[in-house]
Amino acid sequence: MSFHPDILCPFCGLGCGDIGIDRDPSGIAPRPSGCPQADRLFRRSLAVPTDARLGGAAISMDDAIAEAVRLLEASCAPLIAGLAADVDGVLAALSLAERVGATVDHERSDALFRNLSVLRRFGWSVTTLAELRNRCDLVLVVGPDPAAAFPRLWERWVVPEPAFVAGKGRSVVFLGGDPLPETVRCLGGRTETNGMDTGAETDLATLVGRLRTALAGRSRDGDPMAASMAALAARLRSARYAVVVWAAGLFEGPQPDLIVEGLVRLIRTVDGTTRCAGLPLSGADNLIGANQACGWRTGFPLRTGFDGGGPLHDPDRFDWRRRLRDADVTLWISAFRPETPPLATGGSIIMLAPPETTVAREPALFIPVGTPGIDHPGDVFRADSVVALHAGALIDRGLPSVAEVIGRMLAALGRTARTREVAGC
Ligand code: SF4
After folding, report:
1. Which of 31, 228, 305, 370 is the most exposed, fewest CB within 10 Å of its CB?
2. Which helix (H) or strand (E) holds 18?
3. What range does the domain containing 306 cover?
4. What are phi and psi of 17, to 5 degrees?
5. Whose CA is nearest to atom 4 of ligand 1?
6. How does DSSP assign 104-159, residue by residue?
7. What pLDDT, on the 0 to 100 scale, is given for residue 58?
8. Percent of the chain at pLDDT above 70?
C-alpha cells in the first residue's frame, strides 16, 4: 500500500489540492475528504475491461477507431457533446468538429449560459475564489446552497479567516433558497438567513428585486420584508468587500437568467459606493476549460457549430439537448465520471467514457478512456475561470486519454476537410 498526499481533484471545479489517495494492488481509494464527489470518483479499480465495444461486443481499438470514423464520415448532422474532458481532449474534439462539420456543447453548459446571456447584455464585475477567501468580509449567497454542487466551497474558501481584512471576520448571509442544509454547518456562527423566515413571497427573482428596491432607498407599502431588506442593503453598503455568490445551475423557475440579471445590476449599485463583486459558479467536469478552449479556437463560446464550414455560434439552436434530437451521429465524451444522462436520440452514439460507466442503453460504439487526474495528466479550469490547474496521473490501467483517441480518429479521417457534399447529405 502506498499513500499519495495532496492530490488535485479535477471534478467540480473548486480545485481542491489536498486529497489523500491510498493505492494498493487492487486500485486507488481516497481517504475521507469531506466531499462526497471526491470520495466516490477517486475510487477506481485496476481490474477494469479496457476493450472497446461495438454493439456490446468487444473489438480492438483499431477497429473501434475505424468504426467511429466510418460513422462520422457518413454523418449528415454530427454532434460532439458531453465534452467532459481535459483541455487537450476538448481541443482535439474541436479539431474533429471542424473536420466533420459537427456542433459542440458541454453537458453542463446550461448553468454557464444562464450567466453568459447576462454577461453578453450587460457586462459584469466578478471576482475569484482567492479574493473571496482573502479579502471579502460579507458573503451574500443567493438561491440554493452552492455547496450542493461545489461540496467544499465553504470549508475551503469561506471558513478561513480573510488574510487581508485586519481584525474583522466575515459574515455569510443566505438570501432565498431552501432552509439551510447540513453543508453550511462548517460556517458556524457566521451564517444568517434572509427571506426564508418571514412567510412572505420568497420567489428568488422577487427577493432580488426587493433587495434592489431597498438599495435604492425605497420600499413597497405593507411589505413585511421591508425592514430586513433595508438592513441587508445597509450591510452591503457598509461592507468593505462584499461578494455575491450564486450557482445559476441550481436556480429553478422559467427564467433563471432574470435572477442573474438582477444580481448583476445589484452588484453594480453596491460597487458604486464600496467594493462589491459577483462570483458565479458553474464549472464541473471542466466546463469552464471547455468554454475557454472553444473561445481560443473559434472566437465563440460553446454551442458552436461547424456545419456551414466556418464556426457559427447559436446558444439556443446549438444547445446539445436540442441538437441531440436531430443528430444522426453523436460523439458523447464523459471522461470524468462513470455515468451519463439519458441520451434520447434516434441516431447512433459513439461514447468515450471511463470503463466503469453504466449505460441505460448500449451505445453503437463504446470506447473506454481514462480520467484526467487519475489515468493521465491533464489541465482543467477552476470554476472562477481564472486558474488552469494541472492534475497528474495516479494509476496506469492502459486507458487512453480523450485527446489520444480523437487524435487517432483525426489521423484516420485523412487530409481532406469534410463537406456536406462529401458525405452526400
Ligand atoms: S469540492 Fe470539488 S474540487 Fe473539492 S474535493 Fe470535492 S469535487 Fe473535488
Report:
1. 31
2. none
3. 50-108+286-423
4. -115, 30
5. 16
6. E--TTHHHHHHHHHHHHHH---B--HHHHHHH-SEEEEESS-GGGTSTTHHHHHTS
7. 98
8. 95
By the 8 A CB rule, do 279 and 133 touch? Answer: no
CB atoms < 10 A from the CB of 26, how many? 10
Tell me, using a 6 A CB cutoff, whether residue 146 lines ligand 1: no
Domains in the chain, number: 2
Question: How would residue 23 be classed by pLDDT, with cut points 50, 70 and 90?
Answer: very high
The most distant pair of C-alpha atoms in the chain lies apart, rounded to whole Å, by: 72
Q: What is the CATH number of the domain that holds 175?
A: 3.40.228.10
Per-residue pLDDT tens for 48-57? Answer: 999 999 999 9
Pick the atom of ligand 1 nearest to 11's CA. 7
Residue 77 contacts residue 67 (beta carbons within 8 Å): no
Report how far ligand 1's centroid is from the alpha carbon of 8 (Å). Answer: 9
pTM here is 0.94
Residue 152 CA: which ligand 1 atom is closest? 1
Grid cell for residue 383:
470554476
Residue-wise pLDDT tens digits, 315-372: 999 999 999 999 999 999 999 999 999 999 999 999 999 999 999 899 999 999 999 9
149 lines ligand 1 (CB under 6 A): no
With respect to residue 337, please indicate whether it lies within any of the assigned structural domains. Answer: yes
Contact indicator for 253, 208 with CB cutoff of 8 Å: no
Structural contact between residues 335 and 89, judged by C-beta atoms closer than 8 angstroms: yes
Last residue of a domain, one of 282, 299, 324: 282
Contact 19, 38 (CB under 8 A): yes
37 Cβ inside 6 Å of ligand 1:
yes
